[in-house]
């Protein structure tokens, strides 16, 4: 499409083409035995995003059919090894694929693979190679782009590029629609898509249209959905993106070599598409330096910590529809085009100032936070004086706040813990709500983030849907729940999942669902049930509100008493409201029968009306004749050992983990669910719109 390019597009393509070609690779079978390196048919393309890491499509590394394993598979990577056009071949190993379920659920032959259809490949030998520059924007602009990949027009594999325009997005922004200005050839799958106006890779070529030119690409922002690691570890996404930013930072600072870097080329891009012009934006060199300095700091403690700093720098809550920001650089990507005309430079410098004084999860490298602040102060010299004064005050206030936090954290070590060990994390939680369609076995649902104590009452929506069957809820909610967990989990603890449904749905096996990895949800994190907002028979009066608060406080303080609510020596019973009213406030009502059947359904409603915020229920065992005595005995021992209510959600998680690990002493807890209706954490009152009947 050379003749169809505008002057600015043609110049940008000319500048960026050598950089992209140098980082784009051909993917094929792994070299082995005495076979010449680099031989064999082309499976597809890929590109280096960080030293030793290649990004491509999952369907590319899945060449060979459903019998071929994905994660752990070795393959060949032919790459540019020098400015003279020479190539080299190295072996790579597939580290992970997205979505994870592709390993078990492979699509049919010739069918589109599920989004995001990405694979991250680790190179198994130290080599010198170029890397692309990835965008930090959560949403790409619909501008001119170029896509690159391996073609064999003349019978020899080579990396070539074509230009087109982004025509829109699909699948909630996970996919990008490529215009039909030119054809995507088969070997180009897995190659990079480059925003020509900004000089950033925004996508990965996925598929071409069957009827002509154009096709689909995957947004590189989907890399943020890489599998989460165990608590306390740095995730794969953060490791790779840290290496990406440090690579470009080092290239920018190096005096060796004469080839232009991505930062150099950004300075030369045509002004019409240059987002860095003027005093209101950081220059390319400043952006590269800032990303490099942020990469030298410890990663943020959670996604919500990044969003909080972005909100403070922007002056408004960031777009809740964007994928969870997992690293400091992701926060920068949420500061483009801030409201009020204050300018990106000011917002990014405010953000960098706050990061420099953040209470990091671990001590930064000596002087790393001071170096970031020194850079902010020096960069602000070219901007207006009121901003420089504001940044100085912001830095001083941040240092004082960090010192207070560290003193408060150190105090319990001397005088005992302010919060007893084993309680729930105090940050945001994930809220899952589901509503039945009358008597139909279909449900509307909504997944949200329920803010922590810093923003009481704030609920940030993640996703919603209508008319999911009960059997299909787990699959419908897999992706929204995974995104919500990425927003809420911290390096210290997995966030609480609160399931707000009608009492008859307390038997939903949410703790057995698998969202990420192989362990079920109830093993990975605390899972509790809640009564939906406004679910009582009548609006609660002041006396009912006080009774509920008193019982909640009493249970949290302990000691705990258990009381069988729907069972008397194994026989079903319905508790009378008068009997429930006079039980001690530190009582935990226990149910051992099906939540959607009587007498348990009525008992759960009565327990709610009597003001009990903590109760226990369970899914009945497969054998209807099984005795419930072991369950009641085990629960009584557990409540006695817990001593008070606060540790119960975490202790139940530990019981589920023991049962999942085949501990017979924990089998009694199989199917147990905890009702945890915290009156201090208000739920939203509105219900989602009903789907078409």
Structure characterization notes:
By secondary structure, the protein is of the alpha+beta class. The chain is 30% helix and 21% strand. The chain has a six-stranded antiparallel barrel with strand order 1-2-3-6-5-4. The longest helix has 31 residues. 43% of the residues are buried.
Brief sketch in words of this structure:
With 693 residues, the chain is of the alpha+beta class. Helices cover 30% and strands 21% of the residues.
User: Radius of gyration over alpha carbons?
Assistant: 28 Å
Please report the distance between the alpha carbons of the first and last residues.
Answer: 49 Å
Overall mean pLDDT: 88
Structural class: alpha+beta
Label the overall shape. globular
Largest sheet, if any? Answer: 6 strands, antiparallel, barrel
Strand content: 15-25%
Uncertain residue ranges:
33-38, 273-277, 413-420, 689-693
Report the count of strand segments. 23
Number of helical stretches of at least 4 residues: 17
Strand order of the largest sheet: 1-2-3-6-5-4
Percent helix, as a range, is: 25-40%
Task: Describe the structure using short key phrases.
single chain, six-stranded antiparallel beta barrel, globular, 693 residues, disordered C terminus, six-stranded antiparallel barrel, alpha+beta, 17 helices
């Amino acid at each position: 499409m050379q003749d169809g390019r505008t002057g600015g597009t043609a110049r940008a393509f000319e500048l960026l083409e050598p950089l992209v070609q140098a980082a784009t690779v051909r993917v094929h079978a792994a070299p082995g035995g005495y076979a010449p390196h680099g031989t064999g048919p082309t499976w597809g393309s890929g590109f280096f995003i960080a030293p030793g890491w290649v990004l491509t499509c999952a369907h590319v590394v899945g060449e060979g059919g459903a019998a071929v394993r994905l994660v752990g598979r070795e393959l060949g990577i032919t790459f540019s090894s020098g400015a003279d056009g020479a190539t080299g071949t190295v072996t790579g190993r597939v580290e992970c694929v997205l979505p994870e379920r592709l390993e078990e659920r492979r699509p049919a032959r010739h069918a589109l693979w599920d989004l995001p259809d990405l694979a991250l490949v680790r190179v198994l030998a130290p080599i010198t190679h170029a890397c692309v520059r990835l965008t930090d924007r959560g949403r790409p602009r619909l501008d001119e782009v170029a896509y690159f990949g391996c073609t064999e027009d003349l019978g020899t594999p080579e990396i070539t590029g074509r230009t087109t325009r982004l025509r829109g997005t699909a699948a909630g922004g996970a996919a990008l629609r490529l215009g039909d200005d030119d054809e995507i050839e088969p070997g180009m799958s897995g190659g990079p898509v480059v925003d020509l106006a900004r000089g950033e890779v925004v996508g990965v070529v996925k598929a071409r249209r069957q009827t002509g030119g154009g096709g689909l690409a995957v947004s590189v922002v989907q890399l943020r959905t890489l599998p989460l690691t165990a608590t306390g570890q740095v995730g794969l996404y953060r490791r790779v993106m840290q290496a990406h930013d440090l690579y470009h930072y080092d290239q920018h600072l190096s005096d060796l070599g004469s080839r232009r870097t991505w930062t150099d080329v950004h300075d030369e891009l045509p002004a019409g598409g240059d987002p860095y012009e003027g005093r209101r934006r950081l220059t390319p060199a400043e952006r590269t330096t800032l990303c490099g300095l942020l990469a030298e700091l410890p990663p943020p403690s959670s996604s919500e910590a990044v969003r909080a700093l972005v909100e403070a720098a922007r002056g408004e809550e960031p777009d809740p529809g964007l994928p969870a920001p997992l690293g400091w650089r992701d926060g920068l990507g949420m500061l483009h085009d801030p409201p009020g005309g204050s300018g990106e430079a000011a917002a990014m410098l405010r953000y960098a100032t706050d990061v420099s004084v953040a209470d990091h999860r671990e001590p930064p490298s000596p002087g790393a936070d001071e170096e970031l602040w020194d850079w902010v102060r020096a960069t602000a010299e070219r901007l207006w004086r009121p901003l420089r004064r504001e940044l100085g005050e912001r830095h001083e206030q941040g240092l004082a706040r960090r010192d207070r936090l560290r003193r408060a954290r150190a105090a319990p070590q001397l005088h005992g813990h302010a919060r007893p060990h084993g309680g729930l994390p105090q940050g945001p939680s994930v809220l899952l709500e589901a509503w039945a369609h009358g008597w139909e076995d279909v449900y509307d649902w909504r997944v949200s983030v329920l803010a922590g104590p810093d923003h009481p009452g704030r609920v940030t929506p993640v996703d919603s849907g209508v008319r999911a069957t009960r059997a299909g809820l787990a699959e419908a909610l897999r992706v929204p729940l995974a995104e919500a967990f990425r927003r809420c989990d911290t390096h210290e603890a997995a966030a609480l999942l609160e399931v707000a449904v009608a009492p008859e749905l307390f038997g939903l096996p949410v703790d057995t669902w698998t969202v990420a990895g192989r362990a079920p949800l109830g093993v990975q994190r605390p899972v509790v049930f809640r009564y939906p907002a406004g679910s009582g028979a009548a609006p609660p009066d002041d006396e009912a509100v006080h009774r509920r608060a008193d019982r909640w406080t009493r249970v949290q303080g302990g000691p705990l008493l258990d009381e069988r609510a729907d069972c008397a020596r194994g026989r079903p019973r319905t508790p009378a409201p008068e009997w429930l009213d006079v039980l001690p406030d530190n009582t935990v009502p226990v149910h051992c029968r099906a939540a959607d059947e009587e007498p348990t359904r009525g008992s759960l409603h009565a327990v709610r009306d009597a003001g009990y915020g903590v109760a226990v229920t369970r899914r009945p065992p497969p054998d209807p004749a099984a005795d419930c005595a072991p369950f009641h005995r085990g629960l009584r021992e557990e409540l006695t050992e817990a001593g008070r209510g606060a540790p119960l959600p975490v202790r139940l998680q530990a019981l589920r983990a023991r049962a999942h690990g085949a501990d017979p002493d924990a089998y009694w807890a199989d199917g147990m669910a905890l009702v945890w209706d915290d009156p201090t954490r208000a739920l939203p009152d509105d219900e989602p719109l009903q789907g078409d009947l």
